[in-house]
Every structure is written in C-alpha cells, then in structure tokens.
Inverse folding.
C-alpha cells in the first residue's frame, strides 16, 4: 500500500515536471507562440473584417424594356427600390445587355416584353424575364429573395386595380392568410453572424494542433541529434502517461483564457449573436480543448521535423471546416464521411457552441455533443499514450 | 562537375524522390482532398431538411398543409410537437432546423376571411439548410394563402380563369445563366479544390527552397546552376510545376468530365490557365521566401495566406461588398484569378476576351518574383538557419 502511494506521488511529480518544462518550451519558441497566441487572437478579427459587411446590396442590374410604357417603368422603379437591385441603365436590346453582363457592368438583366401593359390590361399574365449571372451564389440568393418580394408587392398593387375595374371589393378578396417568418440564431441573416461563431471554434482546435505538432517536430529533431550520445531529450525518461497528461494540461491551461476571448469577447466586439452564459460554453469547450491536446499528441507520430507541422496540419483546416457541418450539414454526407466527421473534436465543439451561442441552448440540450467530446478525449488519450510510448522507447 | 539547367533538374528529381514528404504534399494530399470534396458534395443541395410542424388546429385544412409541407423536396417533417416550446427545445438541441406553426382555428378563420396568421421559424445559425428551409416555408405560406384567395375570389363572383391570373398578375421568370440547377457544389467544389492546390503549391515550394537553407546545401545548389539564380529557381521548381499542373488538370477532368460540372465556354482556356496558375502560385511563394529566407517564417506566412485565401478570394462573399482595405488583399492571391477564369469561362461561358485581364494578372506574379530574386540569391549563398 505504501509503495503504491509513493508511486502515485512520483508520477504526480513527474507530471508536474513535464508540465513546467512544456510551459517554458512554449514561451521560448517564437514559432509555437505564433500559433498559440497570434493565430487565435488575430484570426477571428481578420475574418470579422472580411465578412463584417454581412450582406451585399444594390447590385447593378440592366433593363431591356420592349414595352416602354408607364406600367413597365413603374415595374422598373419597384425593382430599383428593392434591397438587392440598383438599375444601372436601359440597354437597347438583349445583346447589348449581355455585353454589359460579360464586361461585369451588371450582374442581372430584366427583360420586359412588348405586350406587358396590353396583357395587364386584358388580365392575362405577362412574363417578365430575369437573367442572373451565376458566378457567385450569394448574388443569386439575394436577387431571388428580392424578386419574390417585388412580385408579391407589384402583384398586390395590380390585383387591387384589376378588382376595382371589375367592380369587386378590392380589400375583401386579397390574401387573407398572412405568413411571417422568423430567423432564429442569425436574426440579421448576415454572412458573418453565421460563419464566425463556427470558425472561431475551428481556429481553437487547429491553432492548438499546429503548435503541438511543431513542438513534437522539434522534439523529434532533438532526439535524432542526440541519438547514441547517452543523453535523452527532456521528459523522454518519464512514464508516457505522465508525459501526455503534463503536456495536455499545459496546452489546455494556455487555451482557457484564449477560449474565453474567442468565444465571449469576439462576438461581443463585433455584435454577433451571443446568447448563453460564459461559464456554460467554457465548461462545454473544455473537453474539446482536452481532446484536441490529445489528438495533437497523437498526430505527433507524423512529425519528424519542425516544418512537417505545416504540411500535415494546415490543409486539414479546410477539410475539418466542411466535416464539422457548418457549411454543409452532416445529415447530407455519406456514411463514411459522417464517421470521420464524428471523430473530429471541433465537429462537436462547433455544433454545441453554435447552438449555445446563437440559439440560446442550455447545456442539457447539448448533452449529446458533450458526451461525444469526452468520449473522444478518452479515445485520443489512449492513442496519444501509445504514440508517446512508441516514440520515447525508440528514441 | 557539369552545371546548367539539366543538372539542377536532375539534382531536384533526386531530392524529390528521396523523402516521402514530397510525395505526400505534392500528390497524396491534393488527390485525397479532391476526392473528398467531390464525394462530400456529390448530392448537390442538402435536400430534406429536418423540420417540425406544430399543428394547433387539427383540422382538415391544417393536415392538408402538413402533408403539402412533407411533400416538398426541401423539407422533411420529422415530428409534430404539441406546442411552440417543445419545438423550440428541439431547435436548440439541434434535432430540427426549424418549424412551421398552424394557429388554432386556422380553418375556421381562413374560410371566414378573418385573417389567420401562419408563422414559421428557421435556424439560420446553420446557413445552408436554414435558408433552404426558409425557401420551403415561404413558398408554403404563399401558396396556402393563394389557394384561399382563389376560392374567395370565385365565391365573390370572379370568373374562375380570371381568379388564377389575379392571384399573380405578373410572373417573373428567372434564368440562372450557366447553373440552372442552382447547384451549390458548383461553387464550393472548384473553389476549394483550386484553393487546396494553391495552398499545397505554396507550402511545397517554400519547403523545397528553405530545406536547402536549413541543411546548408543551398551553395551547392547555386553551384550546380552555375551561380545563376534564374537557372537555379527554374531548375528546382520546374519538376514541381509539371507535377502540380498534372494534378490540376486531373482535378479539372474530375470536375468537368467525371462529375459533369458545367463547362459552358471553351475548356482550352481552363487548360491553358492551369500551368499559369501553378506558376503564379510558385512565384508568390518564391517572393515570400525572398523576403523571409527562414523555413518557419515563410512557411507560416504561406500557410496563413493560403488558408485565408478561402475567404479572401471571395468565392462565396463578393469582393465589392468587403471593406476596401481588406478587398485589396484578395487581389494578391493567384487563386482568385483562376477562380474568376472559372466563373467566366466554365460557368458563364463568356468568350475569353472578357477574361483577358485575369490571365494578365496571373502573369504578373512571375514578374514580381523576378524582381525579388536577387534577395534570395544572397541568402542561398550564405545560408543561416534559425530554428
């Protein structure tokens, strides 16, 4: 029994020693500092600056008006008044408008048929053509929602007139069922408000992975240099469990203030959706940090030198962003990709944080991702243990 | 010892074969990412968004609305909670993306014409399914209103064929040129594939150059080139140019031929543009190396810009809507120009005349790199490695 207590004590001391050493390593390596501090602090701001205008409006639209009547001009005026469109000029025919579009002078063309007013007067449906350039989907999306509003507004106007002409009560018949939509989460419907809360969680995980793999690469280089000299790299003589735990604690403790900055202050600074309590998402994100720390130490198996961190980790950010389900919902992936997505800590961290932050969910409603995060922590602790044991024995 | 371009190329090919990291960075990663993106997006739009209907009316008309909702291709009604609060709980836990509410006495009020209100809630925190759901719900709201209006008009004595017209006096027919399916993956896939290609070209170029500085072998490299920096750089990068160009062409054929992405213009220009794009990316990386001849710093800068390119190059968010100061940075990224070529040639199908400036922009990158080349020569002659 006594022996056991001494063992435990020694193990704790070892862990503490590793922890202290790793701290000094982090703060003396400018490359790691760049990833651990500069990246999480600066990137959310950079992303916010990119997307902060949120929406695109008043995009140039050309008009080809074959009718040239008062009614057709009224339609164009209505179009100009919508949020998305700004009429940039009248083209003589479709060919001229097409040239404008190719030269990027306009992004869409409205073509009004010759019999526009005549058909309206006869209560037949005239067809207005709307040609939209498709090199960016966001433009089309904005146009199409403005078009729907335009159609409903001018439609109601014209219907009233037509009913008056028929001698029927114009206010009795129009649409009496009203429908209202409410956007949840991203109530301003802006691009930044949707993408930033998700991206910041990814930044937490990726910057940590980069730093850890950089440290691991440095250690691998040291081991190679010292091989055969009878000297070992600091910490390699400690038990693998003490090594991974000491280091994981170091990374996690460094990241907790960063997590508060990124998850709490960034949404505050830039007026993104921000619900929920600080304590809630810090508690929620803690297992993600721990799982990432262990995942990083697992990835160290591929870190043979300092520079390899870039080649093995950087490109994964793009893949992880997709797999996390922020831009592409997880339910639309095939099963294999779904499995991979499940194995990445930030998938769950992101899902949980976005729901807490944007939808005001409480912890209890996010127990599923929370459980997954702890499960991944256990799994990656095991793999990190095996990798570390293999590396230090070999070294 | 012989010197000259061929010597440097032979030396470089030996170096490329000597370490697996080159194979990983130049071939495996881009190929794996290409297959990954194509497989993740091969369904087109993520249809069948999980939704709920809160039916407080339980009438024939409200059940009709629920059935119509479920029949839409955009929406999958997965549950019918009893009230608003249960539905909201499910949104918060992520089970559904939004819900449609039918009020009490909906049928009675609709028939009586006292204006019942349909409400719908959609979660835009997850943008793509959220906005698809919005589209579905809005359509439902408008059509159910329309159906009642039509009935009322006919009841009021309007001729039946007139009622339909009055419902929608004008129709606006939208033509999404080049992408009539409004397929989202036509934007995501190419932009991400080209972005990944650019990122890997950045990294591997910097890696190949700065490894020489790190191991102190750069003077020998210069000697092999007869102390001419142009020969040295071309000899070193040409094998990579060829490999990356082939990978890039492979990506294009994966997109346009195997997956039938739209190719409305002349594909030759996409093929010609690819080596220009690869060379422009290499030149960008060489410029960074010249300014920062340190493996870690130049790799960091290239990773940071390579990753930012996915947002900055404005594939999803237009440059003209960004702040001016930020928008400037999107012009210094090669991938932006290649993506513009894609938009013009492949999607919109314009003649190459309209895309001419994008090709010119790609050609400016090597010129800039040439201006910086004397700087890199100095650091190659006297390599200093700071870890």
């Amino acid at each position: 029994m006594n022996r056991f207590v001494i063992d435990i004590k020694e193990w704790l001391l070892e862990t503490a020693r590793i922890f202290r050493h790793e701290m000094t390593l982090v703060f003396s390596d400018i490359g790691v500092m760049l990833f651990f501090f500069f990246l999480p602090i600066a990137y959310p701001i950079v992303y916010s600056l990119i997307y902060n205008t949120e929406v695109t409006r008043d995009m140039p639209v050309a008009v080809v008006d074959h009718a040239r009547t008062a009614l057709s001009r009224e339609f164009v005026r209505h179009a100009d008044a919508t949020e998305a469109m700004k009429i940039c000029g009248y083209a003589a025919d479709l060919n001229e408008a097409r040239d404008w579009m190719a030269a990027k002078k306009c992004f869409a063309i409205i073509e009004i048929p010759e019999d526009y007013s005549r058909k309206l007067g006869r209560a037949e449906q005239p067809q207005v053509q709307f040609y939209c350039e498709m090199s960016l989907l966001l433009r089309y999306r904005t146009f199409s929602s403005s078009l729907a509003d335009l159609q409903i507004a001018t439609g109601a106007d014209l219907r009233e007139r037509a009913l008056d002409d028929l001698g029927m009560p114009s206010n009795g018949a129009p649409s009496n069922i009203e429908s209202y939509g409410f956007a949840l989460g991203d109530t301003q419907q802006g691009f930044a408000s949707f993408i930033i809360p998700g991206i910041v969680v990814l930044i937490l995980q990726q910057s940590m992975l980069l730093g850890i793999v950089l440290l691991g690469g440095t250690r691998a280089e040291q081991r190679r240099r010292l091989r055969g000299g009878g000297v070992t790299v600091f910490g390699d003589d400690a038990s693998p469990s003490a090594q991974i735990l000491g280091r994981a604690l170091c990374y996690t403790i460094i990241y907790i203030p960063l997590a508060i900055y990124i998850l709490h202050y960034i949404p505050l600074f830039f007026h993104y959706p921000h619900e929920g309590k600080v304590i809630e998402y810090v508690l929620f994100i803690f297992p993600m940090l721990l799982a990432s720390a262990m995942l990083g130490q697992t990835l160290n198996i591929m870190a043979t030198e300092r520079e390899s961190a870039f080649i093995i980790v950087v490109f994964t950010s793009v893949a992880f962003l997709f797999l996390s389900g922020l831009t592409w919902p997880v339910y639309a992936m095939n099963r294999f990709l779904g499995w991979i997505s499940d194995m990445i800590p930030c998938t769950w961290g992101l899902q949980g944080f976005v729901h807490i932050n944007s939808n005001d969910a409480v912890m209890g409603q996010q127990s599923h991702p929370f459980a997954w995060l702890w499960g991944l922590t256990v799994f990656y602790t095991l793999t990190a243990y095996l990798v570390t044991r293999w590396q230090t024995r070999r070294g | 010892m012989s010197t000259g371009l061929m010597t440097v190329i032979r030396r470089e090919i030996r170096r490329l074969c000597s370490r697996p990291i080159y194979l990983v960075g130049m071939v495996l990663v881009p190929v794996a990412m290409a297959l990954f993106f194509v497989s993740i997006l091969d369904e087109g739009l993520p249809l069948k968004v999980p939704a709920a209907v809160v039916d407080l009316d339980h009438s024939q008309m409200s059940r009709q609305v629920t059935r119509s909702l479920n029949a839409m291709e955009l929406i999958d009604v997965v549950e019918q909670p009893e009230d608003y609060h249960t539905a909201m709980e499910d949104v918060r836990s992520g089970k559904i993306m939004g819900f449609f509410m039918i009020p009490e006495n909906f049928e009675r009020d609709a028939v009586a014409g006292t204006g019942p209100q349909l409400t719908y809630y959609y979660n835009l925190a997850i943008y793509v399914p959220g906005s698809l759901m919005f589209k579905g719900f809005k359509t439902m709201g408008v059509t159910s209103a329309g159906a009642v209006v039509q009935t009322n008009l006919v009841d009021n004595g309007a001729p039946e064929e007139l009622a339909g017209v009055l419902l929608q006096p004008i129709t606006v027919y939208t033509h999404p040129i080049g992408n009539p399916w409004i397929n989202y993956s036509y934007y995501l896939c190419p932009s991400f594939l080209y972005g990944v290609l650019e990122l890997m070209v950045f990294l591997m170029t910097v890696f190949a150059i700065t490894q020489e500085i790190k191991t102190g072998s750069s003077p020998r490299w210069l000697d092999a080139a007869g102390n001419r920096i142009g020969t040295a750089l071309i000899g070193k990068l040409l094998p990579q140019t060829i490999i990356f160009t082939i990978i890039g062409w492979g990506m294009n054929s994966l997109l346009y031929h195997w997956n039938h992405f739209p190719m409305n213009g002349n594909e030759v220009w996409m093929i010609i543009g690819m080596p220009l794009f690869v060379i422009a990316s290499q030149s960008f990386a060489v410029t960074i190396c010249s300014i920062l001849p340190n493996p870690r710093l130049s790799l960091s800068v290239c990773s940071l810009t390579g990753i930012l390119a996915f947002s900055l190059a404005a594939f999803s968010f237009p440059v003209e809507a960004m702040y001016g100061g930020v928008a400037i940075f999107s012009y210094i990224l090669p991938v932006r120009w290649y993506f513009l070529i894609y938009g013009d040639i492949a999607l919109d199908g314009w003649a190459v005349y309209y895309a001419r400036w994008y090709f010119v922009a790609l050609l400016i990158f090597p010129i800039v790199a040439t201006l910086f080349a004397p700087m890199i020569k100095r650091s190659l002659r006297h390599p200093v490695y700071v870890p």
Summary: The domain at 49-167 of chain B is CATH 3.40.1710.10 (abc type-2 transporter like fold).
